[in-house]
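Project outcomes to date are best conveyed with an example. Our students and postdoctoral researchers have been running inverse folding experiments weekly, and each run begins with a structure described purely in tokens. The record below, which covers 166 residues, was selected by the lab manager from last quarter's runs and is presented without edits.
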């Protein structure tokens, strides 16, 4: 009888530890995938990127489309056609819809690339389609304007226009 009680206690203790671990994992996942604070009005989405740290990936929605924003790591290559700076911080963004047949690719933060599970399409961190995979072109970049540490999606600013000319 005493043995059963001890076993029950161990089972409950182990269950409790597992539940706490699972809850901690969910909190960490939520933090990673939380959309950025944003305000939507009249076709514009204003996104605050001030909390983003190097390597952070986040997403928001603009006119019904998923838009990702990545703050690149300091040692990452700067691609003038796909990246922009706010101070020393380098960001890249794009509409996260596969240019093959419209699936939503998944960002892999370890490999720093996007994988489209529909037909095996790949895009690099700058949203450029990887040769030899189905997507025919890079992710589209939404027009945007930089306003302090905020991005206004839907408005064409100097950073966006510089990307188009690069
Ligand atoms: S829809 Fe993405 S690879 Fe086909």
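After processing, the design step wrote out the following sequence:
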């Amino acid at each position: 009888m005493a043995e059963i009680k001890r076993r029950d206690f161990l089972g409950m203790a182990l269950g409790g530890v597992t539940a706490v671990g699972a809850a901690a994992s969910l909190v960490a996942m939520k933090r990673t995938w939380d959309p950025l604070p944003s305000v939507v009005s009249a076709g514009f989405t204003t996104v605050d990127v001030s909390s983003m740290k190097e390597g952070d990936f986040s997403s928001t929605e603009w006119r019904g489309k998923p838009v990702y924003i990545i703050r690149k790591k300091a040692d990452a290559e700067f691609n003038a056609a796909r990246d922009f700076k706010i101070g020393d911080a380098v960001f890249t963004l794009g509409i996260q819809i596969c240019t093959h047949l419209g699936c939503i690719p998944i960002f892999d933060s370890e490999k720093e690339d996007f994988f489209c599970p529909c037909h095996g399409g790949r895009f690099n961190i700058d949203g450029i389609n990887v040769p030899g995979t189905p997507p025919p072109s890079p992710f589209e970049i939404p027009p945007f304007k930089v306003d302090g540490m905020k991005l206004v999606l839907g408005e064409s600013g100097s950073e966006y226009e510089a990307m188009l000319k690069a």
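The CA atoms of residues 107 and 114 lie 4 Å apart. The helical segments are 2-33, 158-165. The training component of this project remains on track.
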